[in-house]
Amino acid sequence: MAGTTVNSAAERRAVRSQANLALGILKRWGTIIVIVLVGLLFAVLSPYFGTVSNFNNILFSMIVSALVSMGLTYVVAAGSFDLSIGVVVTTVSITTALLIPHTGWELAIIGALVVACAIGLVNGLLVTYARLSGIVSTLGMMFVLGGINQYLTNGYQVPVDYGQVAFRFLGQGRLGPIGFPVFLLAAVFVLGHILSTRSRAGHYIGAVGDNPMAAYYSGILVYRWVIVAFILSALFAGIGGVILTSISSSAQPVGGEGYLLEAFAAVFLGATILGKGKPHLLGTLLGVFFLYMVSSGMNMVGISFATRQLFNGLVLILAVGANALLNREEIHLKFI
Amino acid sequence: MTEVAPASDGNTSKPLTTDRRRILAGLALGAGAAAILAGTARKAVAADDFPAIKSNGKKVKVGLGLNYGPFNQPWRRGCWQIAKTVQEMGGQLVTIRGEPSKQSEQDAARQLLDRGIDVLVLGIYSTESETAYIVDDAHRRGIKTVGFMVNAKDSPAVLEDTWGTGAIMGNWIQNKLQRQGTIVQTAEDRGFYTPFDQEVDMLTLMTKYEPRMKMLPFMTGSVSTTDEISKGRENCLSLLQAHPDPNSLQLITSWWWPLTIGAAQALQQMNRKAIVTNHYFSNQLLSEMASPDSPIQFSTDVPYHIAGGRVGQLAIALGQGQDVPNDSYMTPISFISKDQAAQALTELKSMDDQAIALLKQYGG
Amino acid sequence: METPLIELREVRKDFSGVHVLKGISLSFRQGEIHGLLGENGAGKSTLIKILTGVYAPSSGEILLEGKPVTIHLPIDAHRLGLGAVYQDSELAGSFTVADNIVLGNEPGGILLDRGAMRREAVAIMEQIGLDIDPGRRASTLTAAEMQMVTLATLFHRRYKLIILDEPTARLSAPETRLLFGLIERFRREGITIIYISHRLNEVKELCDRATILRDGLVSGTLEREEIDEDVVTQLMVNRSSAELDISNPGLAQSQVILELQDLSTDRLRPLSIRLRAGEILGVTGPLGAGMEQIERSLGGLGAYRGTISIDGRVCDIGSPAKARAAGIALIPEDRRKQALFPNLSLGENVTLPALGDLSRVGLIGHGRARRYARSVVERLGILPDAPERAMRYFSGGNQQKAVIGKWLKREARAYVFVEPTSGVDVGAIRQIYEIILELARNGAVVIVISTSVKELLALSETIAVIHHGAISALLPRVKFTRDSLLAATISATAPAAVAEPTAA
């Protein structure tokens, strides 16, 4: 009996440090591990899932949602909410389709993106100078834009002439096996990533979201950066709208609403990726990928409608919950 | 289930009564006689002109996305007939299970392109413009395409006859009211489901030409993600409040069955009398309509099962290399009056049971 | 005569009829360290908020280097080179230390040069002698570390005027020396410092001059040689300082109320103490050396091993709620974050813990609540006497009194005070000491955890010094002098070579 207790203190320390190491790894990579595991699960269950072509399909499907979600990341990082992002997609899409016959596609895109920035500017002004809450003002904007969409289209779709080959290439073209818009998405992501991690704008947006008082006292123009965040959010959604118009060869009068919830799920899921704890662009992108990968997998495996909802919810809770469990703060007092 | 046209497509039909013939005679479109005489440029034709299709024995793989949700029973019946027809004509069906949304059905369609199919069935939400890129991709790979309840670029399609439906509804209403009275329409939000918009516009147009009839503003019934029965009831209650005189409203037309049920509930709650007409059958609607106290007196329907059967035939024909023109074929219109509701319900249930049983093997 | 850096002429400020500054005329020379003293409510906070742009003056002029300037927003002050370190220094929690130091003034253009940012931050920290890992997330810093980082930030911004508001409140002795070194360096760079503190010895050591405010006016400005406790107190409160001496006459009774047996945590070695009713135990030591662990364990804020017993019963203090249920009242140091609801009124704050007693059948008796709030305000002398006003408008000292007021109805068995008079003016200090003594007189056990040697000598009957996670001295107060207690704190040596048996 004496022999077994001789090294127990040292052993216990060694075991504990190993456990700490494992815990550290889980905290950082936990969500990614869950994503990979779920992917492997689907690949095993269906032979069509783990193919290059399916991977391409997933990337293609997620383009608009990814753009919208990335835009939202900036606003959430700044500490606010933007509920109008989904409808902005529709508005910009309609604007593009309406402008093309009059101005040609290049100017139509520019015009539509200017409209997107204007929407973001209004949102930002309402939240800062008008002192409204992000939720309230963007909700209002959502309804206003919905009405404008109806007014512009009367409920009919706006076509893009089949002859607009160059414009349609943006959404329907291919470079090798990969769709062209996937490249656009990658380019936007890279620019967005540089913006958020390396530029002053991204840094200040993060500072404002983290501690607006500290930012204020350090001389940072808090209002300006919040407005910038909203403009970015609308701009990204607008880019999504342009690409959607190209893919659909038309602008539909409604249909952007679904992107809203997906974006929020992706942003908050993405915040747990790499243990950051706060929203970041790469995490958001992986979050969107995860959601669409799960959808594709469920299609392949043939899961029934009822089970789908259940599965979606469980997977989301698991991914976010596992992370929360590992990153337990001393006292859990943050319920948002 | 009662249909307009004589059975030229292999489905059973009931003998037409004199009432029906009178209605037929009043139709603007749809009757074979009118089409021949008018020599319409429009190639979308009535039931009679659906081509007779025979298999030449070649084995065809047909790709179909099963995207209906638990509330889309007509759609499910359509898919059932597609599957049955493909099977009976010696083909093989490849399916992918999706969700009832545009995104999902497009995803499923693209995934099907990689499954070695010969023909792809597109439908029912995404419009021709939105699936153009999928069609181009498919044709590039040598895969044929056919539209189910929706048009598709450079492809044949089987559609519901929205204009015909509107006309039949309009005629029944005008006969019932003897072209006098005030009516109102309700359907889902404009822009969400184009066929509804078309039917609403058709009825509006017909009413405009009757000087002693008046149509109140359209009641918008939100979209399928919300509780539409409640919305229908709520809208109707407001309407009845705004027109308290019992003679101020004679008839409510609802193009979507949950809204119909809501309207009927509202009438009962306010103790008012008005005629209610409906479009789209469902179990719940038919049982309510069968009840003698219910104000629902007339209903049209889109026979998805007929459309499905025709899509199956077109798909096989395309896959076998037969010459199929890229026309849009209209499906005949079903309609019943109150006394036929119970029987329709029985038929519907039987079809649903068969549909569920067959589609199970395809993961539906 | 050279132009002063900042000159204030007849600056007034009133808030909806309440006159806080009644005409301040004052000047600060370039490169001087100028102390600012006064009771809470005298106007110090308001004055510095005007200088830093948080408030705009109602009337009067401010001149910077002889030219009139308007400071209406913090950004104006920032541009003019005027800044402050408040008692609650705020950092961006998820950013690193380096990021925080250069926040707002990062090198680089549109794209940030992270390498240069880190280098600058490290250079600054080296200049100051601050030894913190620049890559650490600010949310992991202690209060003292946060303050030092904030100071480093101001140094980086090369302000002309830096206002320090009670900077040593959370610093231990060695950290205070570090701060003084930094202040000296600032002065050598020609920066003007306004130093607000209640610790006269510090003011006398550091400041060239000191101004005393009283009731919104300048009561007097003294040169360094003139700074003397009596004179200052006279100018502040018009009373002689002799009346402020307080000491514990020895209130401990015989029965043991609170017993800690082998109480330990990750940072505290097993500790056993028995405290009797009416006994006041003072606990001190270097910051981070272990006394905080006592606060956390007794307050239910952290896990511990060993037992805590009250009235002979072992209690499981697993959460603040359980601590309260067991009869332990914790009055923490960071009052604003941990103890008060800034947007609720004074009355609501004070009556919140007592709602159970003030309500019948689950309904709050508003009349009784109001009367109770009023009695607390009176008893503690909270100013202004306005229970409806939101808590955040009250000065630090009155907030502290409000925190104490929260506990009065509960009749706890043991009170744990942490830095009870940090940031509290002289007049209020006396009142708070009297309250603490009265709690002891009524039979409760009181533990006072503080870095103020004078405070412990005034209040305690027994003193414990905690060093490196263990008790290095546990003796009756009478065994300590000011110097020996200070020495014990710094170097962990107990006075009189031999540690006598403990007081229990």
Give the termini separation of chain C.
64 Å
Oligomer: heterotrimer
Task: Kindly report the CATH topology of the largest domain in chain C.
Answer: Rossmann fold
- What's the main sheet of chain A like? 2 strands, antiparallel
Report the structural category of chain C.
alpha/beta
Walkthrough of the structure:
The complex is a heterotrimer of chains A (336), B (364) and C (504). With 336 residues, chain A is mostly helical. Chain A is 77% helix and 2% strand. Chain A contains 14 helices and 4 strands. In chain A, a hairpin with a 2-residue loop joins β2 (174-175) and β3 (178-179). In chain A, α2 (8-45) packs across α13 (281-301), α4 (63-77) packs across α9 and α8 (180-198) crosses α9. The radius of gyration of chain A is 23 Å and the shape is globular. The model of chain A has no long low-confidence stretch (mean pLDDT 88). Chain B is of the alpha/beta class. Chain B has 2 domains: 49-160 and 304-332 and 348-360, Rossmann fold (3-Layer(aba) Sandwich), CATH 3.40.50; 162-301, Response regulator (Rossmann fold), CATH 3.40.50.2300. In chain B, α3 (73-88) packs parallel to α11. The longest helix of chain B has 20 residues, at 341-360. Mean pLDDT of chain B is 84; it is low at 1-47. The model of chain C is unreliable at 239-243 and 497-504 (pLDDT under 50). Chain C is built from 18 helices and 22 strands. Chain C has helices at residues 44-51, 74-80, 97-101, 114-128, 143-157, 173-188, 200-206, 229-237, 291-299, 320-326, 335-338, 346-351, 355-358, 366-380, 396-407, 426-441, 453-459, 482-491; strands at residues 6-15, 18-28, 33-38, 59-64, 67-68, 82-85, 161-165, 192-196, 209-214, 217-223, 256-265, 268-276, 280-284, 305-310, 313-315, 328-331, 359-360, 363-364, 414-418, 445-449, 462-467, 470-476. Chain C has 504 residues and is of the alpha/beta class. Chain C has a 6-stranded mixed sheet with strand order 6-7-8-3-9-10, sandwiched between helices. Chain C has a 6-stranded mixed sheet with strand order 16-19-20-13-21-22, sandwiched between helices. A 4-stranded antiparallel sheet of chain C has the order 2-1-4-5, with no helix packed on it. Classes of the chains: A mainly alpha (336), B alpha/beta (364), C alpha/beta (504). Chains in contact: A-B, A-C. The A-B interface holds A 48, 51, 53-54, 57, 60-61, 150, 153-157, 159-160, 162, 168, 171-172, 247-250, 252-255, 258, 295-296, 298-300, 302-306, 308 and B 69-70, 95-99, 101-104, 106-108, 110-111, 114-115, 126-127, 129-130, 132-133, 136-137, 153, 189-192, 194, 197, 363.
